[in-house]
Amino acid sequence: MKKIWNYILPAISLVAIAFSVAAFNRAEAANRTDAAPVAVGQPVDLTYAADKALPSVVHIKYVQNSKVKTVEVQSDPFSDFFDPFGGFFGRGNGGTQKRQVQTPKRTATGSGVIISADGYIVTNNHVVDGADELTVTLNDNKEFSARIIGADKTTDLALIKIDGKNLPAITIANSDDIKVGEWVLAVGNPLGLNNTVTAGIVSAKARSLGANGVEAFIQTDAAINLGNSGGALVNTRGELVGINAMLYSQTGSYSGYGFAIPTTIMNKVVDDLKKFGTVQRAVIGIQGGNVKDFVDAQKEDGKEIDFGTMEGVYVDKVLDDGAAADAGLKKGDVIISVDGQKVTRMAELQEILARKRPGDKISLTYMRDKKKHNETITLKNEQGNTKVVKNADLDVLGANFREVSKETMSQLNIGYGLEVIKVNKGKMSEAGISRGFIIQKINDESIKTIDDLQKVVKDASTSKEPVLYIQGIYPTGRKAYFAVPLQD
After folding, report:
1. Is the pTM of this model over 0.90?
2. Which of the residues are catalytic?
């Protein structure tokens, strides 16, 4: 027993010292007003991070007003028995009827993060998309009307602005610096519970879910629920490392993991929206996926593939006239690093490219026949050049429009459309579209309102093929089709 006690006594002493040091650290943190988190491996006081972050996170109320829409509905097959004119006006006999319906007023809530003292706020695109009104409530319950500066569906980010001064802007950290296992807080307004903080750790980085066009999510087990969207993911210093975007759940509520957009992507998107009104997206010009996924799929088909690596991005297709094609990449190559930064999967490559602009050069390392190759590549935009891509507005069309009247719809037996009421110098005149033409579809999208037209023009102007394919009808009943390029 004595020998055992000789071993136990020093151990107990060490444990006592450890607890004493931990208690001392906590006491010191409590006594300091500027307390920062203690060293790695020591207890973490999350109250500091919450105090720092809460004033910078806002509640966003979304309102979409009630609207009148014309819709086509299936006719009652027995209506002919009660309507002596059944069939003449598209009623009965399995036809359709055009009816006007009143859409209900829609409201929703989300979160946002103040990133500048003069009122710029970052949130998710899905929090503000389609809103007629946005109301921002600060942590101290002050309310402001907000306007949308710009939004990017591909990354699910949006930048909005309120007219305020000396607002509590959050400190933005580099999300590259956070590590798996590090403590983080999710701050937002979930389930109608304003100013809520939940804690967890970083569970994974550069996670892809296939929800957005560009994604390299920070995965966390901090509880994220409906209403947290657009809120802050912060480190133990209360610094922003990500914008909470979604939860992974089969029930619609939190069941283990949430996902945040890293600040490395956010910073670039915000900067582009401020400067250009749209994101300047650099593309490498390939299609592919994780090399491990490709190898596993080949094994299931009984094929053995050896690239000399199981990490990287497999190039399945090289797009014509893209940056990769210019550099000589081929189908079957495996990208393993960019600018000296290791790339193990597609999400990591997307995150790196999301920080770049067309015209930027990158140093690319890839495997071919188990040998490393290095190339310097000049990135391009989705339209195959290095020019700044700008959102086109209706002015570029050089025409005036109005919603088609009920009388005209009845005469032409149509349910919707935009009538061209004046044609000036512009893209429509160049394409041969004249006054009186009724636009019904553009790029396979139904055009019922001016807002519909504005959206399709904006989307097309930043797409790979900036052309409007317009379908419509003249007052004579003659149908016509036009292709209207948005760029010279």
Report:
1. no
2. 126, 156, 229
